[in-house]
Amino acid sequence: MLDTDTLSLTSTLLIFSACALVIAVVGTGMAGFADRLADVTGLGEAVFGAALLGASTSLPGSIASITAAWDGYAELAVGNAVGGIAAQTTFLVVADLALRRANLEHAAASVPNMINGALLCGLLALAILAATGPEVAVLGVHPASMLMLGFYAFGLHLASATQREPAWRPVRTSDTVVDTPDAAQGLIPAGRIWLAFAASVVVVGVAGWLLGLSGIALVRHTGLSETLVGSLFTAVATSLPELVTALAAVRHGALTLAVGGIIGGNTFDVLFLAFADVAYRDGSIYHAIGPQPLFIISLTILLTAILLLGLIRRERRGVANIGFESMAVLVCYVAGLLTLVAWPAAD
Fold this sequence. Notes:
Blueprint: H1 9-41, H2 45-57, H3 59-70, H4 74-98, H5 104-107, H6 111-132, H7 143-164, H8 190-222, H9 226-238, H10 240-251, H11 255-279, H12 291-313, H13 324-342
């Protein structure tokens, strides 16, 4: 086991950088595998992006949060989990810029993506309720953590059912890209695609564990707050697969997968809190955090709400072909990070 107390700052930065690079490189191929598997399984890009691609690309962050919680760093674990959601939502702005002809939220209109966005807001609200409500825990785990798992499963079922039998559909325009299976995908054996996808998941999972340990060492070396290190450093590094896969999906024309992978990954990331709650053995993790993690959770709800407004409004073309939601998300995210940087660390 790697001992974070003996790591020098140089070793910490080397491990952190190497793991971030591995996550970015390996994550590049995951969008292509996911697009093929979405066609092979018949689930569609939005549902597959949320259920499997989102969960898989979120694995490094999940392991990093569990590692931090196990070592008693509650705010680092929560900051990494929720800060990753905020970062990944902002990554959609980058993906939007990569799509030249129209606003991404317009072209990738999808009811399941909107359901997953609403589900994300609900899960984050549960975390705030747990942190600000009475201190209740069963075997050190807050009941809200169990409720999150059930709520998440229900949301995925609802999104899948809506994919099969939608009650309404977004208006089709010349810029709308419909999720249709690629007939050429059937030429590649499904087993080989699954194997490549699983191998990628294992590699980014190990990198996520090492990133979590290096994040703990960064807190010790820099004196920065756990929430800032988690929200800015480990969260962005462990979220690189989402950025890479979103850009790759846009390049491949799988626009619904790009948005679904981000929103689905964000929704799965809230479950980091439930996993970290179990790993944190000094009681419920929600009762061990201060105002900074609650601030980043609230910021993330705001960013998700703005994204949902964009998905519903479907502005066709804005400034540089990005809609109002991309500009608003970017401004709010940067303002939130600057607030955390200026926020004095607790003694």
